[in-house]
Design brief:
The protein is α+β, with helices and mostly antiparallel strands. The chain has two domains: 99 residues, Orthogonal Bundle (Arc Repressor Mutant, subunit A), CATH 1.10.10; 70 residues, Lrp/AsnC effector binding domain/regulation of amino acid metabolism (RAM) domain (Alpha-Beta Plaits, 2-Layer Sandwich). A hairpin with a 4-residue loop joins strand 2 and strand 3. The structure holds zinc ion (ZN).
Length: 222
Amino acid sequence: MGLNLDDVDRKILRELQKDGRASFRDISARISVSTPTVSSRVQAMVDVGLIRGYSTMLDADMLGQVSVVLMLESRPVDLEKVAERIKDEEIVRQIYTLSDSRVLAVLSFYNQVKYQRFLESLAQIPEILRMDSSMVMKVPKESPRAALTDEAGLLIRCYYCGHMMRDEGIRIKLDGKYHYLCCSVCERLYREKYEKLKKSAGNARPLVNEHSTHAHKASALD
Ligand SMILES: [Zn+2]
């Protein structure tokens, strides 16, 4: 058993990307695998953090929203800080920090006042050196950023030491949830820590360290 996504995982993910409300039974019929297989694969991909949730796609135009793309320039060392300062704003829908020392943000809002207020708040961020904005006229394509190509593989951090794993590693099941460890030493230490915490807390929660929730791509979770 590896940690790679296989064809079944990818097929399930494609079905879910098409329709996040599809039932395990629907998916199993569409891709010709059993319902319990779909269910256990999905659970594994949720546990590892690859499936981050299910959301409802709304038509922003129908809501009468205006979108603006903002380019913020800063020093490379300040990029994260700039992103951090704007990320909790409701009108900021997407943020990308770019390799050329800029932050690209997509904003959506109903009223100009909110937008103006946001722009004024940006003036209070000294790390922003320059700013450009453009209004979005049309959105010919809008897809989730995660593309499920056939070569999509999973990057997971070891739940114990944080070491990045690709293909190698150990998957264990504790209290019905999957946990990923890079080697047998980490596995043993993790089990000990898990048992200890479980005893002291009375109820067990996975010891996911903060890195491991950011699985980047997908992989196997049989
Ligand atoms: Zn490890």
